Amino acid sequence: MGQLTVDERRRVFAARAQGLPKPPAPPPGPPVGPGAGKTAGDRVRRLRDLATIAVIVTVLAGGSLAWRTVEFHRPQSLLDAVLPRG
After folding, report:
1. Rounded to an integer, what distance in angstroms lies between the CA atom of residue 14 and that of residue 8?
2. What is the full DSSP assignment across 14-73?
3. 16: Cα within 13 Å, side-chain hemisphere
4. What does the domain layout of the chain look like in residue ranges?
5. pLDDT for 1
6. Is 19 exposed, middle or buried (0-12, 13-18, 19+ CB in 10 A)?
7. Which of 1, 35, 75, 78 makes a 20 to 30 Å CA pair with 68?
8. What is the number of alpha carbons within 13 Å of residue 86 lying toward its C-beta?
9. Contacts of 12 (CB under 8 A, 6+ apart)
10. Is the pLDDT at 2 greater than 90, yes or no?
11. Model confidence over 67-86: pLDDT tens digits?
C-alpha cells in the first residue's frame, strides 16, 4: 500500500499541475532617465553612508596621528616592569 502505478502517478501529477496557480508576471524593468527611481529614502541612505565614511576616515586619521604618543614600549625585562622608575 502506498505504492502508485505509473498511470496513477501521471494522473496525480496532472491534477496537481492543473490546480497550481500560474506564477506572477515579472515586475517591469527599472525606470529610464536621469534621476528616475530615486526617492527620499535613497538620499537619506546615501547621506548616512557618507557620514559613516567620514567617521571612519576621521578615526583612522586620528589614530595615525596619535600613534607615536600612544605607542606601547615593552619593558626590557620583568624587573623593569615590576620596579618603579625613579
Report:
1. 10
2. HHHHHHSPPPPPPPPPPP-STTTT--HHHHHHHHHHHHHHHHHHHHHHHHHHSHHHH---
3. 6
4. 41-70
5. 52
6. exposed
7. 78
8. 3
9. 4
10. no
11. 877 777 777 777 777 877 75
